User: Fold these one by one.
Assistant:
Number 1:
Amino acid sequence: MRKAEHLPTFTADIASALGGPDWLRERRLEGFEAFSKQDLPSEAEEVWRYSPIDSLDLESYRPSVVEDGLGPADQSLVDELVGQILERAALCIVRDGSIVSIERGDLPEGVTIEAARAEGSLQPSIGQVVEGGDALVRLNDAFAPDVLSVVVPVGTVVSRPIVVVHLCTAGGDPAPAAFPRTVVRAERGSECSVVEIVAPSGPGRSLVVPVAELLADEGSHLSFVSLQLLGDEAWYLGRIGARIERDAALRAFTVGLGGAYDRCRTDAAVVGQGATSELRSAYLGTGEQIHDVRTLQDHAAPRTDSDLLCKGAVAGSSRSVYSGLIRIRHGAVRSNAMQTNHNLVLDERAHADSVPNLEIEENDVRCSHASTVGPVDEDQLYYLESRGVAPDRAERLIVAGFFADIVAKAPVPAVVPLLQHEVAARLAATLDEVVPTGGEDHHG
Amino acid sequence: MRNLHASVAGREVLHGVDLEVRSGEVHIVMGPNGSGKSTLAHALMGRPGTTVTEGSITLDGVELVGMPSWQRARAGLFLALQQPIEVPGVSLEEVLTEAQPEDHSRVSVAERLREEAAAIGFDERFLSRALNVDLSGGERKRNEMVQLGVLRPPFCVLDEIDSGLDVDALGSVARRIESATVQWGLGVVAITHFSRLLVELRADTIHVLSAGRIVATGGPELAQELETTGYAGYAR
């Protein structure tokens, strides 16, 4: 085990120099204390199995030092991304975890969107839903410069999405590490949706360790979409924790496209009777990328439902890991849990691991899991080719079709065109590098 | 096709099939289970796993043996599958646009799709669905005819087009094929197990395929004979 102590670039002094209100500074120091006593994550742990985490060299990173404002390139990237979202209620720009701006559109009265360190802000309820925090969560606790807090009050409906763009600085030696922190609370009977886009600022190495906490109070509807578009040298180690109370519903969709190593762990606990969670994930691997999706569907109350669908494709010499656990705790009778993972392997150098797990402490429950790993279906290819579609084009259509459904049914409809565009762009680039397996190219 | 030998998984299934189809003609190839009907369809279209070991297939003077399926399709051959499969997330319009990338006719693929759908009674709402997803057997066969109508190939092979179809659907498929033979001179090889296709689809020539060979060829009177005696008389 590697201890997290004695890192020259991650020290208590640096953590406390980040400033902010007293409670936040104290919280950082507690986080740092906890971090320095903990082991760094290890591939020997089940939750990191198949990952490259042993090669994480924290000493080659330093907490990002945020400069003011956005450069012209940052601004045009934000404009390009946000311009594709059909509608929004608010826009927050966050740079390396520091909140740069919050533009409130026509938000209903009482909806809070604020930076925790801004003057007059309330102390957000953080640290409640990401349990069993590993060293990386503690690192976020210690080095998150700010907390973006969204609170939708009782019974309030925010019909358009709240959009958050995280720009993450890359390049330099040591390379910048960013620790964004987001908390969304949908209070009793409220409805809201939040879209988080993680995009790079500049080329080169970076480490991004975000933590998002989602609290869906009784009878609320909370939708969450995360789109990761970092550069190809970035390490993204994301963590989402959700707690869904009685009769509340969470719909979450994570899309991982960028990064050298892209990991997203989502723990969704349905803790009140009648609570539901719908988890969706998609990833597309190219070059030597590693995509890593971990999910926990945690049932802690009777008559709770969870439904997970994760779809990924790996090309080049990329690889992917899907590992998910359904846990039905004692007392969670008449719960339903489904877990499905489909993988397309587009190159013989590419690889996908799929590891579904069940942990069931009750009898009167319904659980199912299904997983597939394989190349594009030969019969589908033949069918399209028998119409005159060239093999490379046929494969492209089928792979695009594989993602079409999950993207079209994203929990936030306004973000569907952006997701479609980003997936299509990566797909075109990905399949261009695939060596055609037969026939000649008629499109030269 | 001339002296066509084809094997599947190393076992020869077709032992020398000769068949000539002219534009506008309808040929029905009938045969019992195991006679090599599906192998014939896939040998013509070039399905991977079906190997032509001897003989030739020419279409308007172009040798098809050795060509991948998609090039055969572009050379003018169309195969209507016995079981058209689902391709999730892929639309008809996308497929047909990719199928004829050099086609720059003034009428768009979308326009032609609507016309063809109307012609065969294929619900227009299905045009926006992913290929064959949530379609019944009959709708899938109509869908094959819609594609045939948009692509307008000189020749087509119908592999058990009558399987899983009710009389209405079979009738509308047969009408579409017959009108295509007049409209653009479509040449047809319809492969079937059942003589009921003969009732619906007017054939110029009927062939009986048995144990990988064509054992009888004749006009519609051959159908009458098969109706009464069955395939037993042709068993080897």
Note: Chain B has a mean pLDDT of 91.
Number 2:
Amino acid sequence: MMSGNAIRLAGAALAVGLAMGSAHAEDAPAKAAADIAKYTSIPGFTAAGEPFDAKACMADKSILSIPGSSSVPFLATINASMARIAKDVGFKFQIWENQGQPTQWVQGIEYGVANKFNLIDLLAGADPRSLVPQIKAARDASVTVTASHVTGFEQDVPGGVSAAIPIDYKQAGKLLAEWTISKTGGKTNALVLVTNEVLSTDSMVAGLKEAFADCPDCTYKIVNVSIPDWASKIQPNVQSAVIADPGLNYVIPIYDSMSQFVVPALTITGATDRVKVATFNGTPFVLDMIRNGQVEMDVGENLDWIAYGLLDAQMRLLCGLPAVKDPKIPLLIFDASNAATAGTPAESSKGYGDAYLAGYKALWKL
Amino acid sequence: MSADIAAQDAARRQIWIDRGERYGLLIAWLIVIAAFGLAKPGIFLSWANFSTIFGSQAVLVVMTLGLIIPLTAGDYDLSIAGNLTLSSMTIAVLNVYFGWPIFAAALMALAVGLAIGAVNAFLVLFFRINSLIVTLGMGTFLHGITLWISNSNTISGIDFAIANVVIVTRLFGIPLAFYYALLIAAIIWYVFTFTAAGQRLLFVGRGREVARLSGIRVDQVRAATFLVSGLLGGFAGILSVGSLGAADPNSGLSYLLPAFAAAFLGATTITPGRFNPIGSVIAVYFLVTGITGLSILGISTFVQDLFYGGALVIAVCLSQLVRGRQERLS
């Protein structure tokens, strides 16, 4: 039997515990809002390494870029920017145009090796894990192979490439969760739509889970929809989730091109006022959807800035400089208050300021 | 005497077998509804759920109806998904980039669909090439044009008037898109069942040489099926834009397998052994009910693939069995 003191002690401990738990719950929205605030103003430029003379070092170098698919606007835009920047710096840059088929990526690597490119870059989607023999053959032929914009900071270098140029996907995932925590006062009830076959998903989901772990009253359900099924599966899944759970207040499609199938699901179920959409990528048509009130927020990346950041990291590898662990490509949150700064209709690299242009010019001694 | 009774028994049994075949899918649909209803009564059996199921699949219904017309004549139209995508992108480009009124842009989408049907018909009938190959190539070609005119971009910001007349406005709580699809199914049913054109189409599908020898202009009938299929592809494009409020260059292509699954599944019911519009509509909603139920139960999306793919294979097997039995009887 417990003594009176022991009971009083246990009671006090329970009270403190409950108070702490409640403070924890109350803190979650404030903490989330504080983190979000860091990503709401136009970002400044931060160099990823020491300045170097890019023109001199790259004069006799060449880069072949193999995008996940040239038909994805996000990648086509980054590639076009990279080609323009390479021309300004003065080195050979070629894009291996493809429709997203692994056999085309294989061909691209073999073309790069046969034509003696110094660096072959697998850009955002050309999955290194499915190209291991080709990557090994390229590296054996002294070609540097990079995987850009596919992994988060904490993920391993995939498929035996020479280096990965990561993006802060984990923070992007965290921001999505924090946005909903902040907006609902720590009562998020979200449907999270993911695409597991994309390498960056793991990192984004890790960020989401980390943020939600700090929010005791938040609930979320993760549904995986592979890319070819986006058009046919996202809408019914969202509709079902909205109908099945009257308390649902957010849908988080972790890649914003999914949003076009989420929005009609909310319209048909009459849930546009109750259920909001928070997403990531900053694709122009989704920024237009924010302006039209169909999507609440989008964590955006400046595609032109990405092109500079990736090339900076690749040039450093070719110039024998230390490898870049963080290309310092910033994230910016778009919502109703600043969506118009991206243009009407929105453009891919507008709204992020232009600090990076002067920054890279000075960094590369152009 | 006993022979008469045995014959009567056999006839009665035959009637029940026929009914079973005719309404089998409908019964299966009701069983699926009952099963999910038992699992999640408050949610699955709600009107909100059914209005969502009915209202959100008009694109798939129209596409399936577009497929069954050439299928009845023994031809495939694999380009219908590419047609849908190009038609919807035509609306987006004309309305958003060129400032066309939405009505004019929608008419142009229908014209694009019709033109695609005409080209398909010309290639199949003039060069005597298998429709499977022509329309497969055409579908890929159309996808290329779609990527080209859209610069591979999803285009949003389309005049909201189109969404208003497709999914926003409702009748009995169900978006108008559902009724458009039903109306098209009713027209096709009428043509198939009560008109000479419908009967000619059926003859052509059952045996081209026999139809030709019977005086039917087979090429004319086949050309008409491609034109109607093209037109319905264009209309599906309009519904797609109205549903999404945007046009994207890739997503329409993923409707092709579900539409074929529904067309073949529909051929096992109402008029077993024949592609028929009412069967097709039931088949679409049978498949969608299954997928919605699985989603509500929180079952992974791969199970939905098992459901779609499995339904297609089972449907084709059943259809083949029915056809074989009918041939034996005749």
Note: Residues 4-37 of chain A form the longest helix (34 residues).
